[in-house]
Protein backbone atom coordinates (compact mmCIF):
# COMPACT_ATOMS: atom_id res chain seq x y z
CA UNK A 1 0.00 0.00 0.00
CA UNK A 2 1.35 3.43 -0.89
CA UNK A 3 2.30 5.58 2.08
CA UNK A 4 1.25 9.23 1.97
CA UNK A 5 4.05 11.70 2.47
CA UNK A 6 3.69 13.74 5.66
CA UNK A 7 3.78 17.56 5.44
CA UNK A 8 7.19 17.47 7.18
CA UNK A 9 8.51 15.04 4.54
CA UNK A 10 7.16 17.24 1.75
CA UNK A 11 8.97 20.26 3.20
CA UNK A 12 12.14 18.18 3.57
CA UNK A 13 11.96 17.08 -0.07
CA UNK A 14 11.55 20.70 -1.20
CA UNK A 15 14.44 21.85 1.01
CA UNK A 16 16.60 18.97 -0.25
CA UNK A 17 15.86 19.89 -3.87
CA UNK A 18 16.62 23.56 -3.17
CA UNK A 19 19.89 22.67 -1.43
CA UNK A 20 21.02 20.40 -4.23
CA UNK A 21 20.09 22.99 -6.87
CA UNK A 22 22.05 25.64 -4.96
CA UNK A 23 24.98 23.20 -4.74
CA UNK A 24 25.07 22.62 -8.50
CA UNK A 25 24.84 26.35 -9.26
CA UNK A 26 27.45 27.43 -6.70
CA UNK A 27 29.81 24.60 -7.67
CA UNK A 28 29.59 25.69 -11.30
CA UNK A 29 30.27 29.32 -10.32
CA UNK A 30 33.15 28.37 -8.02
CA UNK A 31 34.85 26.19 -10.62
CA UNK A 32 34.31 28.83 -13.32
CA UNK A 33 35.64 31.79 -11.35
CA UNK A 34 38.18 30.17 -9.03
CA UNK A 35 39.71 27.39 -11.08
CA UNK A 36 39.46 28.95 -14.53
CA UNK A 37 39.35 32.63 -13.49
CA UNK A 38 41.60 34.78 -11.38
CA UNK A 39 39.24 35.76 -8.58
CA UNK A 40 41.01 36.45 -5.27
CA UNK A 41 40.30 38.02 -1.88
CA UNK A 42 37.14 37.80 0.25
CA UNK A 43 34.93 37.12 -2.78
CA UNK A 44 37.06 34.09 -3.63
CA UNK A 45 36.64 32.81 -0.05
CA UNK A 46 32.88 33.34 -0.20
CA UNK A 47 32.57 31.61 -3.56
CA UNK A 48 34.72 28.68 -2.34
CA UNK A 49 32.51 28.27 0.74
CA UNK A 50 29.15 28.43 -1.05
CA UNK A 51 29.10 24.84 -2.44
CA UNK A 52 29.92 23.49 1.02
CA UNK A 53 27.27 25.65 2.66
CA UNK A 54 24.74 24.40 0.11
CA UNK A 55 25.52 20.81 1.10
CA UNK A 56 25.34 21.81 4.77
CA UNK A 57 21.80 23.06 4.12
CA UNK A 58 20.85 19.42 3.54
CA UNK A 59 21.92 18.59 7.10
CA UNK A 60 19.85 21.52 8.31
CA UNK A 61 16.89 20.21 6.28
CA UNK A 62 17.34 16.76 7.86
CA UNK A 63 17.44 18.37 11.31
CA UNK A 64 14.24 20.29 10.57
CA UNK A 65 12.61 17.04 9.43
CA UNK A 66 13.45 15.48 12.81
CA UNK A 67 11.91 18.48 14.57
CA UNK A 68 8.84 18.86 12.36
CA UNK A 69 7.82 15.21 11.86
CA UNK A 70 4.71 14.70 14.02
CA UNK A 71 4.65 10.92 13.75
CA UNK A 72 6.85 9.71 16.62
CA UNK A 73 7.51 6.27 15.12
CA UNK A 74 8.65 7.84 11.84
CA UNK A 75 10.82 10.22 13.87
CA UNK A 76 12.40 7.26 15.69
CA UNK A 77 13.15 5.61 12.32
CA UNK A 78 14.81 8.82 11.09
CA UNK A 79 16.93 9.11 14.23
CA UNK A 80 18.03 5.48 13.90
CA UNK A 81 18.77 5.99 10.20
CA UNK A 82 20.96 9.05 10.90
CA UNK A 83 22.76 7.30 13.77
CA UNK A 84 23.59 4.37 11.50
CA UNK A 85 24.81 6.81 8.83
CA UNK A 86 26.96 8.67 11.36
CA UNK A 87 28.39 5.49 12.85
CA UNK A 88 29.16 4.12 9.39
CA UNK A 89 30.86 7.36 8.31
CA UNK A 90 32.95 7.73 11.47
CA UNK A 91 34.02 4.07 11.31
CA UNK A 92 35.17 4.34 7.69
CA UNK A 93 36.87 7.70 8.41
CA UNK A 94 38.73 6.26 11.40
CA UNK A 95 39.86 3.12 9.56
CA UNK A 96 40.89 5.11 6.48
CA UNK A 97 42.72 7.64 8.65
CA UNK A 98 44.95 4.95 10.17
CA UNK A 99 45.53 3.27 6.81
CA UNK A 100 46.43 6.68 5.37
CA UNK A 101 48.76 7.46 8.29
CA UNK A 102 50.75 4.28 7.61
CA UNK A 103 50.89 5.03 3.89
CA UNK A 104 48.78 2.07 2.84
CA UNK A 105 46.06 4.05 1.05
CA UNK A 106 46.12 7.35 -0.86
CA UNK A 107 44.94 10.63 0.65
CA UNK A 108 41.24 11.35 0.11
CA UNK A 109 39.59 14.79 0.28
CA UNK A 110 37.61 15.23 3.49
CA UNK A 111 34.40 16.32 1.76
CA UNK A 112 33.94 12.78 0.46
CA UNK A 113 32.82 11.96 4.00
CA UNK A 114 29.55 13.67 3.14
CA UNK A 115 28.99 11.15 0.34
CA UNK A 116 29.71 8.35 2.82
CA UNK A 117 27.12 9.80 5.23
CA UNK A 118 24.48 9.89 2.49
CA UNK A 119 25.40 6.30 1.61
CA UNK A 120 25.07 5.52 5.32
CA UNK A 121 21.55 6.97 5.25
CA UNK A 122 20.77 4.41 2.56
CA UNK A 123 22.13 1.63 4.79
CA UNK A 124 20.04 2.98 7.67
CA UNK A 125 16.97 3.01 5.46
CA UNK A 126 17.60 -0.63 4.47
CA UNK A 127 18.04 -1.52 8.15
CA UNK A 128 14.74 0.19 9.02
CA UNK A 129 13.05 -1.62 6.16
CA UNK A 130 14.56 -4.94 7.25
CA UNK A 131 13.38 -4.46 10.81
CA UNK A 132 9.93 -3.59 9.46
CA UNK A 133 9.76 -6.84 7.54
CA UNK A 134 11.15 -9.06 10.27
CA UNK A 135 9.17 -11.93 11.74
CA UNK A 136 6.88 -10.02 14.09
CA UNK A 137 5.17 -7.96 11.39
CA UNK A 138 1.62 -9.06 10.77
CA UNK A 139 -0.23 -7.32 8.02
CA UNK A 140 -3.80 -6.29 8.64
CA UNK A 141 -6.48 -8.76 7.71
CA UNK B 1 4.38 -4.40 25.86
CA UNK B 2 1.34 -6.25 24.53
CA UNK B 3 -1.76 -4.51 23.26
CA UNK B 4 -5.32 -5.16 22.04
CA UNK B 5 -5.20 -2.76 19.12
CA UNK B 6 -5.97 -5.36 16.46
CA UNK B 7 -8.96 -6.75 18.37
CA UNK B 8 -10.35 -3.29 19.14
CA UNK B 9 -9.92 -2.30 15.51
CA UNK B 10 -11.66 -5.46 14.33
CA UNK B 11 -14.62 -4.80 16.66
CA UNK B 12 -15.13 -1.45 14.96
CA UNK B 13 -14.39 -2.70 11.47
CA UNK B 14 -11.51 -0.27 11.06
CA UNK B 15 -8.49 -0.93 8.88
CA UNK B 16 -5.00 0.13 10.00
CA UNK B 17 -5.33 3.09 7.64
CA UNK B 18 -8.64 4.13 9.28
CA UNK B 19 -7.03 4.06 12.71
CA UNK B 20 -3.94 5.87 11.42
CA UNK B 21 -6.13 8.63 10.01
CA UNK B 22 -8.00 9.00 13.31
CA UNK B 23 -4.70 9.23 15.19
CA UNK B 24 -2.96 11.48 12.67
CA UNK B 25 -0.07 9.05 12.18
CA UNK B 26 1.06 6.75 9.35
CA UNK B 27 -0.32 3.27 8.74
CA UNK B 28 3.24 1.99 9.13
CA UNK B 29 3.27 3.41 12.66
CA UNK B 30 -0.05 1.76 13.54
CA UNK B 31 1.34 -1.54 12.25
CA UNK B 32 4.53 -1.12 14.32
CA UNK B 33 2.52 -0.47 17.49
CA UNK B 34 0.01 -3.23 16.79
CA UNK B 35 2.71 -5.85 16.21
CA UNK B 36 4.69 -4.80 19.29
CA UNK B 37 7.69 -3.48 17.38
CA UNK B 38 7.17 -0.02 18.83
CA UNK B 39 5.81 1.10 22.20
CA UNK B 40 4.05 4.48 21.86
CA UNK B 41 4.81 7.45 24.08
CA UNK B 42 2.31 8.29 26.83
CA UNK B 43 0.72 11.16 24.84
CA UNK B 44 0.12 8.86 21.85
CA UNK B 45 -1.11 6.05 24.11
CA UNK B 46 -3.65 8.50 25.59
CA UNK B 47 -4.74 9.51 22.06
CA UNK B 48 -5.22 5.83 21.20
CA UNK B 49 -7.23 5.35 24.38
CA UNK B 50 -9.39 8.37 23.48
CA UNK B 51 -10.02 7.06 19.97
CA UNK B 52 -11.23 3.71 21.35
CA UNK B 53 -12.97 5.32 24.32
CA UNK B 54 -11.25 2.99 26.77
CA UNK B 55 -8.70 3.47 29.56
CA UNK B 56 -5.07 2.90 28.61
CA UNK B 57 -4.73 -0.18 30.81
CA UNK B 58 -7.53 -1.86 28.84
CA UNK B 59 -5.57 -1.42 25.61
CA UNK B 60 -1.92 -1.82 26.61
CA UNK B 61 -0.96 -4.81 28.73
CA UNK B 62 2.20 -5.67 30.59
CA UNK B 63 4.39 -8.33 28.99
CA UNK B 64 3.85 -10.58 32.01
CA UNK B 65 0.08 -10.04 32.14
CA UNK B 66 -1.79 -13.30 32.64
CA UNK B 67 1.25 -15.19 33.93
From TrEMBL, chain A:
The protein's name is Uncharacterized protein
* Organism field: Pseudofulvimonas gallinarii
Sorted alphabetically, which keywords does the UniProt record give? Membrane, Transmembrane, Transmembrane helix
User: What are the transmembrane regions?
Assistant: 12-31, 43-62, 83-104, 110-131
TrEMBL record, chain B:
Under Pfam families, the record lists:
HTH_3
Q: Where is the HTH cro/C1-type domain?
A: 5-59
Task: Look up keyword Transcription and say if it applies.
Answer: no
- Look up keyword DNA-binding and say if it applies: yes
CDD domains reported in the protein's UniProt record:
HTH_XRE (cd00093)
| Keywords, sorted A to Z | DNA-binding
**Origin superkingdom:** Bacteria
Molecular function GO terms recorded: DNA binding
Official protein name in the record: Xre family transcriptional regulator
Species the sequence originates in: Pseudofulvimonas gallinarii
Amino acid sequence: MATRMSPARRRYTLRLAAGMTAYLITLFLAVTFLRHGNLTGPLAWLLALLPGLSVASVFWAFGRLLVEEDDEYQRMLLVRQSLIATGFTLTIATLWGFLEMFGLVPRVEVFYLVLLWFFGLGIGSCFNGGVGRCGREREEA
Amino acid sequence: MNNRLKALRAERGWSQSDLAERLGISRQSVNAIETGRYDPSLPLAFRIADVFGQPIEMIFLREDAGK
